[in-house]
OmpH family outer membrane protein (Dyadobacter linearis), 214 residues
Amino acid sequence: MKQKLMAFLVVMTIITTPLLAQTTTPASGLTKIGYTNVDYIIAKLPESKVMQNQLEVTKAQLDKALGETYKEAQDKYEAYQKNGANMTDVIRADKEKELQNLQTRIQEMQNNAQTSLQTKQQQLLEPILTKVNNAIQEVGKENSFLYILNMDAGANSTPIILFAASEENNATPLILRKLGVDPDKVEAAPAATTPAKPATTAPATTPAATPKKK
């Protein structure tokens, strides 16, 4: 569970369009375009670790509730299998309806858990995205970038930056410093020539098999 959640957080499914920072063209008249990798920056922030922990807690709670409901359904199904032959038609029909209702409830809980986890992720990501975007705007203005493009174009898409002749316009170290992170103490950002990994969606809670009647 933890590994899946960590993998999902490292990739981050939150950036679908480039974040741009615009300012005036440098006095030389040359267009200065920078690039960065927003997913990489977010993954290096302390807030991301806090978010990961909170998502893990939320997912554990959802899994616990789902597991308890599944166990209830399983126990009642086993009792039905064991005693069904001795039940009257009315009681048997009532037990079967109860099992069907539990199966529907489990399916609804699985769907709701997925939605709840994704909503929680979005709520936690919003202030982080705002903070990163503000840093990009400041770095863009302070360093006379006309644009700062995001290397990762999003899930199942081609990265915007396919080639960079040098690291001169890589704004990632500047943005990390603006956010209070020492770029020299973190893993190097992916090179512009390396396609970013496709983003993934938030993991669903572990599906529980529902009892089936014979």
Remarks:
- The CA atoms of residues 9 and 52 lie 7 Å apart.
- The chain has one domain: 2-185.
- The helical segments are 2-11, 38-43, 46-83, 89-142, 172-178.
- The chain is about 55% helix and 5% strand.
